[in-house]
Amino acid sequence: MKTAEIMANLAAKHPGENEYLQAVQEVLESIEEVYNQHPEFEKAKIVERMVEPDRIFTFRVTWVDDKGEVQTNLGYRIQFNSAIGPYKGGLRFHKAVVPSMLKFLGFEQTFKNALTTLPMGGAKGGSDFDPVGKSNDEIMRFCQAFMTELWQCIGPDQDIPAGDVGVGGREIGFLYGMYKKLAREYNTGVLTGKGATWGGSILRPEATGFGALYFTQHLLHKAGKDIAGKRVALSGFGNVAWGAATKAKQLGAKVVAISGPDGVCEIPDGITDEMIAYMLDMRASNRNKVEDMATKFPEKAKFTAGKKAWSVPCDIALPCAFQNELSEDDAKELQKNGCWCCCEVSNMGCQPGAIHYFQNNGILFAPGKAVNAGGVATSGLEMTQNASHISWSAKEVDDKLHFIMESIHEQCVKYGTQPDGHVDYVKGANIAGFMKVATAMLEQGII
Ligand code: GLU
Q1: Does the Cβ of 323 fall within 6 Å of ligand 1?
Q2: Mean pLDDT value across residues 17-21
């Protein structure tokens, strides 16, 4: 495979789209060896086709804010790859959303979805709408305006959006309400992450965080360790961090840090159930300030402005916030403070320098596309429930999520075990996902 040539080509076609190029580069580096053993992939130009999205929709979203002023945002849906199933992936509402971000996320999603064992292709969408400081009514009006364009591009057998950063159960509710009105059909399978009383799967809100902790447990067991009693530092305080904190505590770990764009809250005695519940209020407030936790629980949490979760001594680091949130310097600081394991829960949460540092310094590391796949996997389970007009119990969903995370871990071990016996989880996840998508593309011909 001519990685340098493919990358140069891609950079010329997508100038300045650094996150996208970073995500592709990481995958190509991992799969090069395997790819070269399959001349049929080269002949069908699998990689050259796989790195380009199938199609991109861009649209204007105009809405009126609480002051009566007209606001215009940009909306996108990127349908990346449908080799193994209909397009599937979340919507991100964040002021920094640009096509590069959504292309990287859609590309990653394709491999992640392949790992889940479920038939789902890859997609991503969103808007540069900034939810910070917006009222509930503003969120609703924006979601409704966004859906008046998006609805034409999606469908239960075509493309199924869900949540991501800035999009949770509330936003999915507003989006679905408008979809239903426009399509004149009660077709719940068109979105996942819905409310539990109208087609949502039990445990979907918790699934990304729960799945991440199940994966972490498997990784630790393989390394002869256990999570009980360990100190966990996690970044963010949104839906994913909430699920991760809940399960980490249930498994006997001590969550000693959460963070936000404003700084870090250190929690020396470990997070309590009350504090975990408060994380939900913090998200719903749209203030985007982790300091609120220390204001509410001054005896338990100490806020430091401008610091990251990675400055707090811990055993296990769980980035749960945003891409590239953990740099090589952060990786060094973590190690200095006693950290020996990092499971990336956010999509591409660690910069390449941080990943290399972890891998070269004996720190256990697993990438987001394996660790966080429990979220989209449970979306897949929600689709199955919707298609068969039933809803499963919490136990049924949790058992299936457990099974899926175990199977993802097994795939990483199968494809990532190195000659010296250690597991390269980055390679393992990339190769396992790639083989599945590439084989399907090959079998479906040149399209
Ligand atoms: N946004 C989540 C992810 O990155 C979930 C996507 C979904 O449920 O479709 O995987």
Answers
A1: no
A2: 98
What are the C-alpha distances in Å from 381 to residues 119, 191, 366, 378, 386? 11, 12, 24, 5, 9
Residues 227, 151 share a domain? no
Cβ of 201 closer than 6 Å to ligand 1, yes or no, is: no
Report the number of distinct structural domains present in the chain.
2
Q: Which tens digits make up the pLDDT trace of 148-192?
A: 999 999 999 999 999 999 999 999 999 999 999 999 999 999 999
293 and 366 within one domain: yes
pLDDT-based confidence at residue 2 (cuts at 50, 70, 90): confident
CA 383 – CA 157 distance, rounded (Å): 10
∠ at Cα 110 (13, 288), nearest 5°?
Answer: 90
Residue numbers of the domain that contains 347: 205-371
Query: Probe ligand 1: pick from 97, 101, 109, max atoms within 8 Å of CB?
Result: 109
Residue 404 has pLDDT above 90, yes or no: yes
Give residue 29's identity as a one-letter amino acid code. Answer: E
Question: What's the confidence (pLDDT) of residue 1?
Answer: 74
108 and 244 together in one domain: no
So which residues are the catalytic ones? 124
Q: Ligand 1 atom closest to Cα of 112?
A: 10
Q: Is residue 174 part of a domain?
A: yes
88 lines ligand 1 (CB under 6 A): yes
Whichever domain contains 215, its CATH number is 3.40.50.720
Q: What is the pLDDT of residues 288-340, one digit of tens each?
A: 999 999 999 999 999 999 999 999 999 999 999 999 999 999 999 999 999 99
- Is the full-model pTM beyond 0.85? yes
Asked, for residue 3, whether it belongs to a domain, the answer is no
Q: Is 25 part of any domain?
A: no
CA–CA dist 259, 307 (Å, integer): 8
CA-proximal residue: ligand 1, atom 10 (nearest): 376
Rounded Cα–Cα distance for residues 239 and 237 (Å): 7
Atom of ligand 1 nearest to the CA of 89: 9
Is residue 10, in this structure, part of any structural domain at all? no
Please indicate, yes or no, whether residues 168 and 209 belong to a single structural domain of this protein: no
Q: What tokens were used for 82? A: 């449908």
Query: Domain check: are 93 and 231 in the same one?
Result: no
